Every structure is written in structure tokens, then in C-alpha cells.
Amino acid sequence: MPNPKGNPDSLKPIQSDREDKLTDNLSFRVTKEMKEEVKAKDDPPEFCRRAIQKALNEEKD
Questions:
Q1: Residue 43 near residue 53 (C-beta atoms within 8 A)
Q2: Residue 49's CB: how many other CB atoms inside 10 A?
Q3: CA atoms within 13 A on the CB side of 15
């Protein structure tokens, strides 16, 4: 039986306007200080994606 106080919109998949779909997860350990700094950003997941992509691009060059 569904929760009468639940929000049915939370069951709908998240829509994205990205060209490439974000289908995979990645997890790794960081220091407490690093975690706090990243969490303080406006959009922590996007910040991490940009930082990783920047490092990958620099490594190619």
C-alpha cells in the first residue's frame, strides 16, 4: 500500500538535458577536509565531474 503522505513525483525518473547520460557510479575515499570543501560547493556532483574531466584532459595532452 502506498504511503498516503508520499510525493508521487519522487517516483518519476530524473530528466537530464545532457548529451551523454550519467549511467554509472564512481566512489572513492577522500580526507574529511576534502569532503567538507566539496560539499560546500553549489553543485558538488557537477564540481567533481568537471574536476575529473579536467584531470583526464590534462593527462591526454
A1: no
A2: 13
A3: 3
Distance of CA 60 to the CA centre of its chain: 24
Better pLDDT: 2 or 52? 52
Beta-carbon contacts of 47 under 8 Å, excluding residues fewer than 6 positions away, are 38, 41
Cell representation of residue 47: 564540481
Query: Does residue 4 carry a pLDDT above 90?
Result: no
User: Counting beta carbons within 10 angstroms of the beta carbon of residue 48, is it exposed (0 to 12), middle (13 to 18) or buried (19 or more)?
Assistant: middle
Residue 48 has pLDDT above 70, yes or no: yes
C-alpha cell at 32: 574529511
- Give the domain ranges of the chain: 28-61
The answer to whether residue 56 scores a pLDDT higher than 90 is: yes
Mean pLDDT confidence for 24-31: 95
